[in-house]
Amino acid sequence: MSKLALLGGEKEVTIKASKEMFHWPIVNQAMEDAIIEVLRDGNMSGLDISKKFEAGFAEWHNVKYGLAHSSGTAALHTAMYGVGLGVGDELICPSITYWASCIQAQNLGASVVFADIEPDSLCLDPDDFERKITERTKAVVVVHYLSHPADMDRIMGIAKKHNIKVIEDCSHSHGTLYKGKLTGTFGDVAGFSCMTGKSFAIGEGGMLLTNNREVYERAILFGIYARHSEIEDEELKHRIHLPNGGFKYRMHQMSAAVGLEQLKKYPAESAEIDKIYTYFWDKLEGTPGIKAHRPAKDSGSTKGGWYIPVALYKKEELGGLSIQRFSDALVAEGINTSPGVNAPLHKHPLFSTIDVYNHGKPTNSANLPDGIVNKGDQQNLPIAATLSQRILRLPYMKHFDKNIINQYINAIKKVCENYSDLLPGDNNSNEVKDSWNLTKRKG
Ligand SMILES: *Cc1c(COP(=O)(O)O)cnc(C)c1O
């Protein structure tokens, strides 16, 4: 009989993890007190605490300006307006990301053009980015996907050469270093989600960072009308008092108060998570069938809070075993895992055929010159299109508990070593269902 639990063997993971192992965010007394204070003061819609939070966040990144928003979606929307994205422009975005990296561009009259990702970093492929540039390209969104830094040296070089603005989406990469420098400090502007599921969690909220005064003032003009008095630019001054565009995006101060406390404890929390996954992957290094999603060790690059840890699956090293069958075997051993993460955005009809604003033509091409149609579903992005067959979500541990971590490691090794037992029952017909929403999962 096989040793594998899926085929009747003993289950490898026998320790039941405590709830705290996966629970997020970690809430301390100082956070609770801070929230009560905001509530009792009736200061939910003020600006004072949010300004302190954004100053702290900006200082952490050694960036001049921070602007607190109601969500990451909002921060990225104002970032796009901030760099001047508008009617008829194109925004290049990797197809594998959460939708809020790009859809707001359509709202500004721009068109989203997708680029492929690199198979190992899972971030924007610089070569494909360059191939997708046209005379209409105004900006690129760089996503440091699942905490892995994108290839900023090459991306910034290409952007500079073609005079393209760079927006970093750091919603997964709080504390991530690229060659020793924090993500969010390379481009013209950066947007961070700080919603509850993210590594740096404050409730609902987002942060914009920039060193560029013009981007900062345009962002205020667009999204934070209560701060229009900060605008100094003579041109923009004529437009203040009402939100240009009609959006009100200021942060709820309960979130800002949590954020101030989070700034204090995030370094220790993310360091512990980094310790967990560094240990985990060091032990699994060289195991046929799986590969870590992490930067090279001596590169100075890191994965911050390891937002959604994943394994890269190599079925060719396991006799072609389907990822679904591999995942089923891990689940049977006692590991909560599932294949697939974000579905490729370019395949969604919102980027091909859907007419959101009654233009009488698809929104994604609505403002392009006559004869130019930009359809996501006609793009050939082979890495993005097949990612769900090569990526496996792992339990997101928050505490370094060697006993449990070792059991997970042993379970994975056991399935990889005994993969041939799984081949006979593998009909390979199990389609992996990934989601455009990245639905919530336990553990
Ligand atoms: C979560 C997320 C966002 C949006 O942030 P919200 O705070 O949920 O609005 C944007 N981009 C990426 C990559 C994200 O994961």
Percent of residues in beta strands? 5-15%
Which value, in Å, is the CA radius of gyration? 23 Å
Question: DSSP helix count?
Answer: 12
The CATH topology of the domain at 29-260 corresponds to Aspartate Aminotransferase, domain 2
CATH homology-level superfamily of the domain at 29-260: Type I PLP-dependent aspartate aminotransferase-like (Major domain)
Low-confidence stretches: none
Biggest sheet strand line-up: 1-9-8-5-4-2-3
Bound molecules: pyridoxal-5'-phosphate
As a percent range, the share of helical residues equals 25-40%
Element pattern in H and E: HHEHEHEHEHEEEEEHHHEEHEHEH
Biggest sheet descriptor:
7 strands, mixed
CATH architecture of the domain at 29-260: 3-Layer(aba) Sandwich
The CATH class label of the domain at 29-260 is: Alpha Beta
**DSSP strand tally:** 13
Average pLDDT number? 96
Report the oligomer: single chain
Compile the SSE list and pairings.
Layout: H1 29-41, H2 48-61, E1 65-69, H3 72-82, E2 90-94, H4 104-107, E3 111-115, H5 126-131, E4 137-143, H6 152-161, E5 165-169, E6 177-178, E7 181-182, E8 189-193, E9 206-210, H7 213-223, H8 234-237, H9 253-284, E10 290-292, E11 310-313, H10 323-333, E12 338-339, H11 382-385, E13 391-393, H12 402-417
Parallel strand pairs: 2-3, 2-4, 4-5, 5-8
Antiparallel strand pairs: 1-9, 6-7, 8-9, 10-11, 11-13, 12-13
Helix pairs in contact: 1-9, 2-9, 3-7, 9-12, 10-12
The structure holds pyridoxal-5'-phosphate (PLP).
